Design the sequence.
């Protein structure tokens, strides 16, 4: 732009000279001395040439500047994409850290220690998350948490928190995942298989005792079965004790007894929704081949 | 329908505010929808109550039904009662608790009836696997007094039970025993915690009052700087800005960001020697401890305590005797010299 300015100034100067010339031409009556005239003439010619040259140069520069700004854009976009790359990496990191939730156990450093997140799941379904905020001090202590009061957190802490924190977390994960799984099965039974239930589902906070009456076919005229499922092991999602009783008057008949026994086996080995799905699929007669 | 039952139903319905009448009657579910629609709810309350009682009579409402209505009314008006908290414990190494609600109810009632012939026990299942129990006490020769019942709220497989304040202290041991045995516990102890706000008591003992956790999912709120009014005139300067920020920080560390559980008072029974800087005062150098009772009252005690230091009324940090209340689950203290 410096050259441009110079060129413009020269042009302005030239124009001033031209105007002066034309004015002085008007004023002067006598023809100027030939040599002076011819000198001036040459000078004018030279200056005109210079002016044209400068004009051309200005035009060229302008054209170049236009071209270079067009070229500069890819350069600028290169800068932007670098920023984006860094920002993108940060987003990526954040996403990875957030995704650690899916491993079931994740944590975040806090000013006083670490906040551990236990994300429960059952059969591929992501369920509730529970938090334990730990203060890293001697002794290690729990600042606050969202573990339900009926989960034996105090017992587990007393056993493992000070001596083996990994085991503490593992144990707590086991309890919480099992609880979440049992709760999920009970909720699902009430929600999706309500047609099979002949009465309300009785349960408790830990979902480790379920008591209900059910039929194998929703509209069936058959008598219902009574089920009582006990989960004595709080780290499992399948019952440890199953009692099925048949209330019908023909209870002594072998077919009902067979059914009753096979139901018992089903409840022992399959989660609740699978048991009831199999009832739904088979209607009246229970397919023995399902019992694995 | 028994006259006493009719009178009891009448008095219970009379207590219900008109704005809640429909809701509570529907929750009771004793008078069917179509019958309720035949009643004129726009008449004077006394006439409305008479109509409703007549309907109950025609449906032969029993004491059981009336007791259920009383429970529902109390559930809607929990704050009218003062609630105590009992803590139960088991022997170590006990088997897993296979809590059966029906067995709990029958066991609870059986224990009371064995000791007291005249008693009315009613149950209503509640959310979160909890149960509300209503007990009307009688004596060996007198029928239960339906107008002074005790309520117990118990969440299954937890060591805590919430009971409404009972004037008749003599029945408390029996109640405690019934609770303990029916819920598979061994010992029971009354906590030094009392409030009208059942939800707050639950939040305190279940440790649910602080539910803010740092995760990668949430963006941590920027350290809240003093809530200085940014729109204030620039000619106004904040004195002691550094101190104010320190106080804010200490308060935040002690009380957290969450809403405080609601308590109405904290009571400190002091039995300590008087300590004074002035020698030769009347109270100084006494051998016997000074006995006095200090009670802090507030519509919302913990929020009030939280605002003391930022308001400049007290120094920060506050005395741990005040700040330990939710953590220790106590609002009654006895302080003796060590």
Sequence:
């Amino acid at each position: 732009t410096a050259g441009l300015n110079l060129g413009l100034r020269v042009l302005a100067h030239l124009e001033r000279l031209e105007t002066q010339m034309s004015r002085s031409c008007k004023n002067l009556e006598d023809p100027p001395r030939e040599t002076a005239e011819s000198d001036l003439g040459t000078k004018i010619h030279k200056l005109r040439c210079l002016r044209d040259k400068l004009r051309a140069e200005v035009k060229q520069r302008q054209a170049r500047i236009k071209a270079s700004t067009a070229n500069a854009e890819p350069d600028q976009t290169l800068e932007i994409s670098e920023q984006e790359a860094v920002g993108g990496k940060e987003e990526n990191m954040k996403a990875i850290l957030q995704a650690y939730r899916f491993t079931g156990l994740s944590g975040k450093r806090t000013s006083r220690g670490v906040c551990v997140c236990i994300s429960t799941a059952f059969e591929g379904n992501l369920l509730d998350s529970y938090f334990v905020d730990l203060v890293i001090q001697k002794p290690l202590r729990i600042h606050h948490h969202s573990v339900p009061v009926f989960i034996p957190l105090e017992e587990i802490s007393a056993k493992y928190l000070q001596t083996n924190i990994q085991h503490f977390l593992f144990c707590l994960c086991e309890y919480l995942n099992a609880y979440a799984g049992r709760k999920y099965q009970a909720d699902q039974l009430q929600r999706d298989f309500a047609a099979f239930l002949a009465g309300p589902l009785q349960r408790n906070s830990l979902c480790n005792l379920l008591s209900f009456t059910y039929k194998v076919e929703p509209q069936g005229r058959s008598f219902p079965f009574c089920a009582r499922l006990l989960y004595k092991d709080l780290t499992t999602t399948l019952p440890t004790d199953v009692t099925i009783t048949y209330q019908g008057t023909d209870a002594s008949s072998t077919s009902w007894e067979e059914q009753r026994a096979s139901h018992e086996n089903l409840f022992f080995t399959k989660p609740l929704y699978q048991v009831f799905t199999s009832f739904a699929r088979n209607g009246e007669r229970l397919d023995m081949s399902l019992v694995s | 329908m028994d006259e006493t039952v009719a009178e009891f139903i009448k008095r219970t319905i009379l207590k219900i505010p008109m704005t809640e009448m429909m809701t509570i009657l529907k929750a009771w579910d004793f008078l069917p929808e179509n019958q309720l629609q035949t009643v004129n709810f726009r008449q004077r309350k006394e006439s409305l109550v008479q109509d409703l009682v007549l309907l109950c009579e025609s449906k032969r409402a029993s004491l059981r039904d009336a007791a259920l209505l009383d429970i529902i009314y109390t559930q809607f008006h929990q704050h009218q009662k003062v609630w105590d908290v009992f803590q139960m414990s088991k022997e170590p190494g006990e088997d897993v608790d296979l809590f059966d609600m029906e067995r709990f109810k029958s066991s609870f009632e059986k224990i009371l009836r064995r000791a007291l012939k005249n008693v009315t026990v009613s149950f209503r299942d509640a959310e979160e696997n909890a149960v509300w129990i209503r007990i009307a006490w009688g004596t060996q020769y007198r029928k239960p007094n339906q107008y002074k019942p005790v309520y117990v709220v118990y969440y299954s497989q937890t060591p805590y039970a919430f009971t409404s304040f009972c004037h008749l202290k003599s029945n408390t041991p029996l109640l405690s025993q019934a609770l303990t045995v029916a819920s598979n516990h061994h010992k029971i102890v009354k906590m030094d915690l009392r409030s009208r706000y059942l939800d707050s008591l639950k939040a305190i003992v279940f440790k649910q009052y602080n539910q803010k956790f740092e995760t990668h999912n949430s963006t941590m709120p920027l350290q809240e700087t003093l809530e200085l009014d940014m729109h204030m005139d620039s000619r106004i300067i904040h004195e002691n800005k550094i101190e104010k920020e320190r106080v804010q920080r200490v308060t935040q560390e002690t009380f957290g960001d969450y809403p405080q559980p609601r308590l109405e008072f904290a009571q400190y029974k002091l039995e300590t020697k008087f300590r004074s800087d002035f020698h030769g005062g009347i109270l100084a150098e006494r051998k016997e401890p000074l006995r006095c009772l200090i009670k802090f009252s507030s519509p919302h005690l913990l929020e009030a305590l939280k605002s003391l230091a930022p308001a400049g009324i007290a120094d920060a940090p506050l005395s741990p005797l005040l700040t330990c209340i939710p953590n220790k689950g106590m609002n009654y203290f006895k302080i003796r010299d060590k």
